[in-house]
Specification:
The complex is a heterodimer of chains A (115) and B (111).
Chain A: E1 5-7, E2 10-13, E3 19-24, E4 31-37, E5 44-50, E6 53-57, E7 64-68, E8 74-78, E9 87-94, E10 105-106, E11 110-114
Parallel strand pairs in A: 2-11
Antiparallel strand pairs in A: 1-3, 3-8, 4-5, 4-9, 5-6, 7-8, 9-10, 9-11
Chain B: E1 4-7, E2 10-14, E3 19-25, E4 31-37, E5 43-49, E6 55-58, E7 61-66, E8 71-76, E9 85-92, E10 100-101, E11 105-110
Parallel strand pairs in B: 2-11
Antiparallel strand pairs in B: 1-3, 3-8, 4-5, 4-9, 6-7, 7-8, 9-10, 9-11
The chains are: A mainly beta (115), B mainly beta (111).
Chain lengths: 115, 111
């Protein structure tokens, strides 16, 4: 079965640079979530989109922005990168319905290293 | 604000033994999830528990939910090395989208 696709899988950036992470949800999934997981930490919710509109917002820094496009893929844009932004960034998707268990299916993650 | 706590944080088990991981959450949640994560890998969905008294089993893992106590458990039966991973519980409030994760339990099964 098709899974969530994230690209790139690994990314190395310098401080103060910008980065763009991409997420392609499972086909027919209409909701996308972004999570950040620091080393040895639990995943922290950043932001989510449903039908191309922001649906919830968590602890996302102002330096980060995200959007969902008409084909439902999503991009997380990160500017003025800091050392503390080094983490695994996960995208998850689901298809909303009245009978759904709302299980979020996670992608493989993008490992961002800021030097 | 929804808070989720797990214990223990680290669990070293001998193969063949049983053990339970506990997950407490602070406010009403309409969904409780269990995920498995291997080092550096993605989160794999194990169980979703929807109602009080719900019990689900898959192989050597069994999850249950007590909404009155705001407690979920993940019971491991006759552990095998392949179960070594980090296990996260996560809760979701009915009014929002996000999952709030517990701290994770790092399970190591030794021969």
């Amino acid at each position: 079965a098709a899974g969530v696709i994230q690209s790139p899988r690994h990314l190395i950036k310098e401080k103060r640079e910008t980065a763009t992470l991409k997420c392609y949800p499972i086909p027919r999934h209409d909701t996308v979530y972004w999570y950040q997981q620091g080393p040895g930490q639990d995943p922290q919710f950043l932001i989510s989109f449903y039908e191309k509109m922001q649906s919830d917002k968590g602890s996302i820094p102002d330096r980060f922005s995200a959007q969902q496009f008409s084909d439902y893929h999503s991009e997380l844009n990160m500017s003025s990168l800091e050392l503390g932004d080094s983490a695994l960034y996960f995208c998850a998707s689901l298809r909303r319905s009245l009978t759904s268990t709302d299980t979020q299916y996670f992608g493989p993650g993008t490992r961002l290293t800021v030097l | 604000e929804l808070k989720v706590e797990q214990n223990p944080l680290f669990l070293s088990m001998q193969e063949g033994k049983n053990y339970t991981i506990y997950c407490n959450y602070s406010t009403t949640s309409d969904r409780l999830y269990w995920y498995r994560q291997d080092p550096g890998k993605s989160l794999e969905s194990l169980f979703v528990l929807l109602s009080n008294g719900a019990v689900k089993q898959e192989g050597r893992l069994m999850a249950s939910l007590d909404t009155k106590a705001r407690l979920s458990t993940l019971h491991i039966t006759a552990a095998v090395h392949d179960l070594s991973a980090t296990y996260f519980c996560a809760a979701k409030k009915s009014s929002g989208d996000k999952l709030t994760f517990g701290t994770g339990t790092r399970l190591a099964v030794r021969p």
